[in-house]
């Protein structure tokens, strides 16, 4: 037999062949509100992540001559919406926490969401940086252009229409440059807002990180530790009680002896 | 193709189908018995489970409440007890959808029992989505260190499957391992190995070739920790705190486990200094937003790093205290001298004034005495030490007299000694290169004087062309490529990609360290393990 098939095998059919009851279709249990909301939130996280991936691939293909800023900006605002929706879901989940399962699912979604907003934040940073770099590049090219134009004006007689288009192009460039600046300023602003959130989250992140590297058998361990601790304490308190008992008996004995002496000899 | 898959990664791959049964389930919970818990807990942390959308995990013995609309994955050993616990869960109607995974192939009657019991519970069968059986009968303690927990045949079989290798099984003739090897070979015969799989030489020596390594004092961080504080499945308990020694998450442990204690302490200190300088660097950074942001990103990682260094500082600190108190370095040195058959000066043994400390050393004294017995050390000297040590613990007295009897009866019968191996003839011819060094140094940094028997055996097998005929009479080799016994030839080392050494009567950290050193010298991977990982005390207590 091939190794791959041997390592693990589906034996469901083998198992079912040994079952001798008629299987009736069961009504599926309706998952409760919490699970539904959590599922929605998780799906939103997944879509946000997909969009971030899309942003990444699009921005990779973006060059100086293949400007996709519009598309990129749309994606960014979509992700932003996703994240704010996730937060709404998370807030509503937070009010419904009533058992371990809820808590763990909430932690799970929260952590995923945090990761997503973290990579969103990082993307924003690198995106802003890239815009800046492109601007510089453009400025340099524009500079080159201007020098060239001066050169042309000085030494060559130019066709007027040509001059005009050139001028127009430069104007368009300037306009675009301004727009870019505005966009990147907005980016930085939103980034700053993000930072405020990040600062608040550090504590949560550290705490989550600690859970992440916990051993799976931690609680089993703790249980056995607690059992042995409990036993120790029980023994100790037993000792205490028995020693107390001894003391009480001794005290009473002495009292009795005194009473006896008093009654018999003195009275 | 190298054996690039370490045991840990191989185990991870093998566990994936259990933990990720279907992508469409948004999250699920995991239930396991104690047997399977060990397989999971050395490999995964809570974060890894979360990564795979497992939000809660339980041991079947833990108290659990009913969870509506939840998918549960069971990972249990196919034994009556665990199946009964599973049935009980169905009785209590705990979960809505269930996937069942057995750690090894399940016997037909047990599967029938499960079917019968579950049929009695209305709606139970409908909840079962899938039933799988796996081959996961080994615990990966490190990338090249395993524990089979007495499931030797199934365990080795699981390792072969998980590593995806073609095995060459080399086992000692006329020994206890022969039966085990034959059973394993029978199991392997049904498999068709892919011819691109790398060759792995699996060596099954008899424990009798070397008891010294299990009993003598070691100088490595890992072995000393195991001897003094007892490492259980990569965990050490010290004053109600559990330290997690996972090679995947604790890089320091991964590197320092097989180092001599002083080197390991240096390593820990270097790591601490690195951390401190990184911390200073981060805190002195200018107040720019971008650097502040990257500093925040560093916080969790640095926190984790700090925790790791701290726990090793604690452990090493405790270890140094114990070592000093019990002068374990002296015991190590004395042990080495016994192996070299050097004369021991009774003054070499530092006796403490404190009776309590002396009595805490009884196990160490016992180890030294037994080491003398096993190595036919000078009788008079032995008596002197026995008198000096005056072991009072009754258990230890029993063990000592047990060993005395065994050794005496072996000498009287003039038969092959149980403790002197078939390899004794070969090993005794090896020159003792480290002789003389021992007298000049007084601590753990001493070179090991004599190589352990297994290392000598591997040297003879792979590096010494002249020994191959002698080995032919001792070892049998089964080649899974031809599905038959084949002749040992010199030059095996160039065709194999790695070596696996499995002791069926106990393995230890000391031997692990030695094999690790040897692996470096021949530049091949050596995987090591056994049915159990003993420390010296646990091992000796079997001989009461």
TrEMBL record, chain A:
Give the UniProt subcellular location, in the record's own words. Membrane
- Where does the source fall among the domains of life? Eukaryota
Q: Which Pfam family, giving just one, matches this sequence?
A: SNARE
Q: Which GO terms describe its cellular component?
A: Golgi membrane; SNARE complex
Q: Does the keyword RNA-binding feature in the UniProt annotation?
A: no
SMART domains to which the protein is assigned, alphabetical: t_SNARE
Protein name stated in the entry:
t-SNARE coiled-coil homology domain-containing protein
From the Swiss-Prot or TrEMBL record, what is one GO molecular function term? SNAP receptor activity
Supply the InterPro entries for this chain. Answer: Syntaxin (IPR045242), T_SNARE_dom (IPR000727)
Would I find Iron among this entry's keywords? no
Please list the residue ranges annotated as the T-SNARE coiled-coil homology domain: 175-237
Q: Which keywords appear in this protein's UniProt record, sorted alphabetically?
A: Coiled coil, Membrane, Transmembrane, Transmembrane helix, Transport
What's a BP term from Gene Ontology annotated to this protein?
endoplasmic reticulum to Golgi vesicle-mediated transport
What organism is listed for this UniProt entry? Paramecium sonneborni
Q: What is its main location?
A: membrane
Segments passing through the bilayer: 247-266
The protein's topology relative to the membrane is: Single-pass type IV membrane protein
Automatic annotation (TrEMBL), chain B:
One Pfam assignment: Sec1
Q: Which InterPro entries match?
A: Sec1-like (IPR001619)
Q: Which GO terms describe its biological process?
A: vesicle-mediated transport
User: What name goes with this protein?
Assistant: Sec1 family protein
Tell me the organism.
Paramecium sonneborni
**Mind giving the lineage of the organism this protein is from?**
Eukaryota, Sar, Alveolata, Ciliophora, Intramacronucleata
